[in-house]
Amino acid sequence: MSRRPAVAVTGLGVRCAAGATVAQLWESLLRGRPAISLHTFDDEGTVVCPASAMTGFDPAGYLSPKEVRRADRSVQLAVCAAADAVEDAGGLHVEPVRRAVVTGTGYGGVISQENGIGHPDVLYAPRLMHNAGAYWVSARLGVTGPSLTISTACASGTHAVGEAMQMIRAGSADVVVAGGHDSPLTPTTALAFGRAGAMVTECEDPAAASRPFDVDRRGFVLAEGAAFLVLERLDLALARGARIHATLTGYGRTSDAHHLTAPHPDGAGARACMEQALADAGTTPDAVAHVNAHGTGTELNDLAEARAIADLFGPAAVPVTASKSVTGHGLGVAGALEAVITVLSVREGLAPPTASLTRLDPRCDIDAVTAEPRKIPGGPVISNSFAFGGHNACVVFDSPHG
Question: Considering 16, 154, 203, 394, which one is annotated as catalytic?
Answer without folding.
Answer: 154
